[in-house]
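Review box. Two proteins, two foldings.
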Amino acid sequence: MAITAEARSIKGQVLNATDSTALAGAVCRLSADTQPILSTSTDSDGNFHFDIDIQSKIDISIEKEGFSPIYITLKNGKRGTKLNRLYMEKSHKLKEVTVTANSAIIKDGITIVYPSSTEVKASATAVSLFQKLPLPGLLSDQVNRTLSVDGGSPMILINGVPSSMTDVNSILPKDIMNVKYSRITPARYAGRGVSGLLDISVRKLTDGGQIYVWGQSAVNTTFMDAQLRTSYHHGSSQFTLSYSPSWRNYKKVYDHYYESFIGNNFRVDLEASDQAPFYYHTHDIRLRYDWIPIYKTLFSASFNIKPYINSSNTDSHNIDSTRGIYDNRDETLNKELSPSLDLFLRHDINKKNSLEAQIVGTLGKSNYSHNNTYIYPDGYTESFLMDVDSRRRSLITEVSYVHSISNFTSLSGGIQNTVSRSANTYLNSDYNSILTENNNYVYVRFSRRIKSVYISASSGAKLIWIKNDLVHRHFIRNISTAQFSWNIDSKWNIQGVFQHTPSIPSLSLLTDYPQQITPYLLYNGNPDLKVADNFIYKIMGTFNIRKFSASFQTALSDTRNCVINDISYLGDGLFLSHSVNSRKALNFYNTVTFQLRNIHGFGATLFANISHYTTAGENWEHSLTSLSGSISLWWNKGPLTLSYWCKLPGKYLSGHSIGKEENGDVLQVDFKPNRHWTLGVEWMYMFNRHGTEYPVWNYSQVNPAYRDRYIMNNANMIVFSVSYNTDFGSIFHTVRRNLNNTDNTSSILKM
């Protein structure tokens, strides 16, 4: 079906050709010169609306599962057009939404990607789909089911609502309509410690429900993850329940370390081999209610609770140059429970003004016990105990306002406030510490598009009051970002950014309360810590043409008064570990990404990074050059998908310490016998007899050390996975309809 009209402001209504009822959730897309521009979905009345400033020819596609698509061509013009009623014919052959556009476009500094049907078919989970999309800087970890942007966790939105990785993992790949992505953290979220933005648009359900069940388990070790999500939509309301358990019980965990403690006229050398098994299980439960009374308003209420239990026991044999040979047992038990209620409201006042508000209340409880016991050959034992019960109450409030001055210019601002009270009781000393915090962030942002160039600037103030019975500190710091984006043509884009972000030390780092946990070492806070100021400078470029994309990024991170961990000698054979401000911390890094997609079912992504670190303090300086990267390959043929992901872990430098990132690789086979089931088998950490490895070097003159931890349970791990999803219809009522009538029914944010 093809229609030709003349318009720039576009409205229409999509109806079922069988009974003339409204079709909600139909995906409407605009494109110009084969390049995607905008995407939306019809509301509960079947209506859609676009406002565009492009006067050239526009193509519109309207698609919905179970119906034949509609294609519309709009000729050159400026007038508004109302397409009135568009009828979609049912199609028995169409099994799922088919997205034909897969090229990435960059609009106002944001990369917009529409997953293709080929990419969706080749993806068993949302994380595996993100691995195939042209989103430079976004790394998808298949093993841990996480996403990162330039090494940090991104701010995640799902249909505009702040969300978490648990929410992302519960999304079906076929439900993702488009992804808006940026490596630059927007001003609104600059104070949250996140890196970049990931805004996922998920298709909205029509009346009826959806069930999604996923699980994976290894056959050669205790490795189990699962996901259950069920949702039901009725009229203007949607209810969602999700449950995500995870369980590990690893016995083959080993540590080997060599370290020295060196002070004035004192030195001790230590060597130890540890067996350090650990166990944890977590249960993430979320109940969410979404209410959309009109298409301009969204209210979301989410109750989250996540019980977590973690225990570890380390038995080690020590060779001590001062005390001789002895054993020690280190036991840790941690229990956490933090129920929270998250209320979110978005209201579009009119076409130019939008308001968002969010309130998150949390009641946290944790019990932490750490007992380190040393057993000497003569039978003498020495124990160091840290036993803390913590209770925390917090309330996070945010209001954000956006005003569109024109189609090319916008002004936004907002305020965020966090108030909290924590009571920490140290059971071994009966010391009770009351910690209070008042954290505020106020910002304003201006943006403007001038032809093919987009510029934005933001500035804000971070104001924090923190205190306990020992420390009372007040901080006021600026957060600023300046950005430009230039679409040179339909293929090339260049971006630049400057960011200044302060890192304000936590109250625990400032609290002066020493605790001894080994015969030689004490831990304490440092009330004299200064605020660290991080200045970031970036130049980025992207190139997209059909099935190939490439990108580069050159960046410099200059952190002044960087907070690092340092060890100093106190005397009498005792050393103090605490945080201090370093003199210099520089990181210069360069990344490139290349990607091929949908070549006879084949795709590949190559990522490479080279970084140079320099850190310095009083009378010391260290430097490091590190190479890291990853490769991802996949091939899809009918119901079968083969994929391979491998990570080349790099090293990083922080203060005196050099660490190496976690290694990882996985060879995976997925089989989809029908649209409901997916069966998979994975081979993780192939040909690596040590499994995951975590080596760390310390080049401190006071505490030179080397430690290597590896988890052999992960070595050559075989994992089976299965998922099932289905949609079901309305169970409440059936409305009698006549021809041409209208049917009027239709986070924990951890900071």
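Next protein.
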Amino acid sequence: MKKITIKATARRAVAVFTLFSFFAIFLLVNIFRLDYLNYEYYKQKTYDQVTTSAKLTANRGNIYDSNMNLLAKSSTVWRIFVSTKDIKTAEKKSGKDYKRIIADGLSPILSMDSDGIYKKIAGSSVLDVTIKKTASEEEYRAVLNFIGEKGLEDLLFTEAQTSRSYPNDTLAAHVLGFTGSDNQGLYGLEYYYDDVLAGEDGYYVYAKDAGGNALDTEYSSYFPATDGYSIVTTLDSYVQGELEAILETVRVNHSVNNRVCGVVMDTKTGAILAMATSSPFNPNEPFTLDAQSEEKLATSGYIQGTKEYNAYKSELLQVMWSNKAVSETYEPGSTFKIVTVSAALDSGAASLNNTFSCRGYYEVGGWRIRCHKITGHGGGFNLAYGLQMSCNPCMIALSERIGASRFYDYVEKFGYFEKTGIDLPSEASTIFHKEENIGSTELATASFGQRFKVSVINQLTAISAVANGGKLVTPYVVEKIIDSDGRIVSQHETQIKRTVISEEVAKTVSDILIEGVSGDGGAKNAGVSGYDIAAKTGTSQKFDILDDNGNSYLRIGSTVAYSCDENSGISMIIVVDEPNSQVKYGSVVAAPYVSALFEKILPYLEFKSSSEQFNLNVENYVGMNINTAKEKLKEAKISYEIIGNGDTVLKQTPTANQSITLPLSKIILYTEQIEEANVIVPNLVGTDLATAIKTATNAGLSIRLLGAGATAPDSDDIICEQSLPPGELTKRGSVIVIRAINTKFED
């Protein structure tokens, strides 16, 4: 029995020893695996459990215009938030209603409803509740004072954040775009250059205890944020502002249904000086509809809050944000005739000596395609006249001489089958016939810019190739990228894609266009006294929308123009989509506004004017001896009237530096302190130019003449605007500015 017990005990001892041996081996293997094989993995898991990180937001780069005026900037705002967990704990300990204390205290500071703040805190199940995301500097400091006064350091908190703002509100909105809630670019330059502007966020890593409090340990690390670069654009704020003002005038004057857009570009470099679409939204409040869109929504018949209402509002926002000059297409109409004539001359298919005829229509492919002048332009006229008069049969005849294949090649050379490459998002592509599908009818309609679509920026870029001597350039908006110290990171260089026509042909076509504007051509409304303006108007039909009889009834009126001096050139285009005025031709709804914009920006851009023989700024004669003043006026061939018997000029009308048109104006000099006579301003709008000049002169007013009448007046010119309101009393001799347009041309 005893031997059996000893043996059993020995066996049990061996079993236990074996078990412990296996367990020890298991432990040693796992310790080896943990300490050596998976050391980094478990180290990171431990690190993650005892550490947390705080984001350090990078400052987004600024956007400047070409003169370093701020267009977009980032500024610091503060998030105001509470810890609901700590509020509940504090309320249990003290019995105080801290939610109400905080709500009532923040309400006047943040201009928020007290009950709304209270419900926000009380109804939340998360630990961190934001009261206001973008508090201002003033609000931030007031909140800090409130926290200190009430001892809320563990309940109410502030956090610095970055906010994007646009100092000029709507200026260049469609070019700049805007950012989202996380400061990311969503539209325009903000989107296209988001990687450049955004920078790289940093973060602060620190150890924490069980209560989430920071511990000063070896685990604390600081990774600084890298601020974004700033971009300097080619935009000129003055030119941009003038363009936007002009487009709004067009929209109102012609009840435009589908917006107006325009672009101003340097013809040699492709730099965009201005680009705008009516009506500009405010990128500071991008989700607020503009007045026109809001009116459409209000009259839509949809009930606010419904699915249909919200969907329509979203659609209106998308349209409002869209940069019409880049992202939409249109039929260029007669402005494309510049390309047709250029191709004909450059290819040798036609010359200036060729003659053409127009019976008011041209028969091709079994169709009778009419000219805008139903009675026709007659016979025996040359190519220059055909372009200036915008004759469709002349263009069709030219396209037949060029031939479909060669015509297609020139359309391609002018860049229509590729995107311009402008540094803005969502550039639209041309919609054109496939080469094998171009029959006689397609060729005919394409010759005068119908039945195909291009983007506005593409059309202006193509025409600028004629303006600059035949070079197709890439348009661009960003001139350079700079760091926070102003050092240049990258600089744009002019990109010439190719030569599309010879310099000689480009000059010939430009001369034809200039002669048409300064003479009796269809684009004369685009003229500016003292400057050589090359221009072409166009009116195209919209075939996307038809009436009940299958006819197109909507129109697009446009004008493309350029002016060049010895060193530089400026081109511009204005496109009016669906004008609802009685006259819808580009020569009326666009050309006069091109003229008005050129009048503003050419002197500003220091283009030389030769207008002194027609227009001049009045000299200051006050204090001058009357005989000296009379001699000066006679020498300048300016009419004058002397009132009083004194020897010295005491007053004058018009006053010094006002611009007048000669010989339509007279200067009145006063040599005695005599009260100046007043006259009643007549209503000149709607009258013909000759009558208007006579009426204004008889009323005792001096005249400053703008528009078509200032360049090549004829009997069909009428006055479309005047500077002094009809019926108003003004000093005798005061300057009234009148603008003449010609309405006899279709295009």
